[in-house]
Amino acid sequence: MEKFDWLDKLFESLSFPTLILAPDMTIFAANQKFLMKYNYTEKKLIGRKCYQILYQCDEPCRESSCPLMHVLTYKKGTSGLRKTKGPDGAEVYEDRVFSPILNNNGDVSYIIVSLRDVTRTRLLEIESQKTNEFLENIIASSASAILVADMKGVILRMNESARKLFG
């Protein structure tokens, strides 16, 4: 029976561009999705520091804000939203998930980093916030009494004119 190398298959089967980092911040491996999306070759990527690639910096992150340090300290995953430039120079929002790979002693041997492009979702959230602020300003600045209620009649919002009129 042919030996099945499931670790490599698993790594390459991940849905998102993914890196494996050593605890010293060195990039140990990258899946093909990462190499293709960010236009790297393994030769140009492996051995470099994560902050050089993920943050385009020459110095490591401050320890208090470094997700890798958080994983090393607490041995638990963490994630964060990062606004950055994509390969084409356009503004991109990425959800970056840092997860520990623990050894038999429970210590962090490696850190797996998955990058998910959430630009469309984030831009919709921003647009929704702007629309809500616009509507709030219209309601607040209207001289007419305005009440906003749900389908059960529960008042959700009321402007100052409505407060004066209805008490």
UniProtKB/TrEMBL annotation:
<feature type="domain" description="PAC">
    <location>
        <begin position="77"/>
        <end position="130"/>
    </location>
</feature>
<dbReference type="InterPro" id="IPR035965">
    <property type="entry name" value="PAS-like_dom_sf"/>
</dbReference>
<feature type="domain" description="PAS">
    <location>
        <begin position="131"/>
        <end position="167"/>
    </location>
</feature>
<protein>
    <recommendedName>
        <fullName>PAS domain-containing protein</fullName>
    </recommendedName>
</protein>
<dbReference type="Pfam" id="PF13188">
    <property type="entry name" value="PAS_8"/>
</dbReference>
<dbReference type="Pfam" id="PF08448">
    <property type="entry name" value="PAS_4"/>
</dbReference>
<dbReference type="InterPro" id="IPR013656">
    <property type="entry name" value="PAS_4"/>
</dbReference>
<dbReference type="InterPro" id="IPR000700">
    <property type="entry name" value="PAS-assoc_C"/>
</dbReference>
<dbReference type="InterPro" id="IPR000014">
    <property type="entry name" value="PAS"/>
</dbReference>
